[in-house]
Amino acid sequence: MQISSRFTIAVHVIICIEAFKDTHKVTSEFIASSVNVNPVVIRRLLQQLKKAGIVEVRRGSGGADIARPLDEITLLDVYNAVESVDNGILFHFHENPNPLCPVGRNIHAIMDSRLQEIQNAMEAKMRAMTLREIMEDANRLLEL
Amino acid sequence: MQISSRFTIAVHVIICIEAFKDTHKVTSEFIASSVNVNPVVIRRLLQQLKKAGIVEVRRGSGGADIARPLDEITLLDVYNAVESVDNGILFHFHENPNPLCPVGRNIHAIMDSRLQEIQNAMEAKMRAMTLREIMEDANRLLEL
DNA sequence: GTCGATGTATCAAAGATGATTACAACGACA
DNA sequence: TGTCGTTGTAATCATCTTTGATACATCGAC
């Protein structure tokens, strides 16, 4: 099972907002045409990013801005803003292991800390990547 | 989006096979009652684990065994056996970014290596956890 | 040949995703 | 103040994935 495209789209959205902030009014429709999805999908994502304090969106006049310095936004912030489900637990556990079986009774005690450790490793990597680094790479490519 | 319960169920299945190998015939029905799912779900999982060389399943007489030493089976082996989709790519990318937009044209170049790095961190953790360690923890709990 | 179990097809139910339409509310500006 | 472009959001739909469930041919041991 894969992590949904909302995450990669969200990064795409942020890069667009930053890259075109001086030359275009970056509306949901503008972003949607770069990502190639429906504008409503972008608006919904922008709402999630706004709730997380990552972007600001202007009603009426239209357009969006980044809400805080790029080096204070990590990929984990973006991920949690748009993907987080069920208290941010990555691994879905089968719901009702049989308490009458010794294994069923103890499977959580056996696995929970390990699953958490795996998730921590992934999140640590994401936390170490800031939008600033990503934007620097992007600018290098966009200028060519 | 969460990783499906197939992964945690698969680990549960393996622990059951190992824990009860001397005292029960470990059939799909037996395992299903510990996990609390339909036996067919277990049989499908056993097929995936068998294809990965992790378990052996006996037709006719019934029952399953672990196919190789527990310290040569990692959580990553189990994960790949039952969850792997789309060449093992964890992050689903939006399909058709606009090649006429500089950002759309370069989004893969900007993100692919970073996404891979995140996935690598997660897989490295899983590779470092063997079924042997897990079984040792399990035995400690099951004996109480 | 019987019997219990596996291997697998098929269908249904439920949940998530993303596309799309529609429209009220908003803010800037003439 | 009224127009206009845009956002915020609801509603609906098709599609996909997961899981549950039934059914049954096939297998291996006895």
Summarize the structure in words:
2 copies of one chain form a homodimer. The first copy, chain A, has 144 residues and is mainly alpha-helical. Chain A is 58% helix and 4% strand. Chain A has 6 helices and 2 strands, in the order αααββααα. Chain A has a two-stranded antiparallel ribbon with strand order 1-2. In chain A, strand 1 and strand 2 form a beta hairpin. Chain A is elongated, with a radius of gyration of 19 Å. The mean pLDDT of chain A is 92. Chains A and B meet through helix 1, helix 2, helix 5 and helix 6 of A and helix 1, helix 2, helix 5 and helix 6 of B. The structure holds a DNA duplex (30 and 30 nucleotides).
Helix content of chain A: 55-70%
Regions of chain A with pLDDT < 50 over 5+ consecutive residues?
A: none
Number of E-type strands of chain A:
2
- Which class best fits the helix and strand makeup of chain A? mainly alpha
- Count of individual helical segments of chain A: 6
Q: Output the strand order for the largest sheet of chain A.
A: 1-2
- How can the largest sheet of chain A be summarized? 2 strands, antiparallel
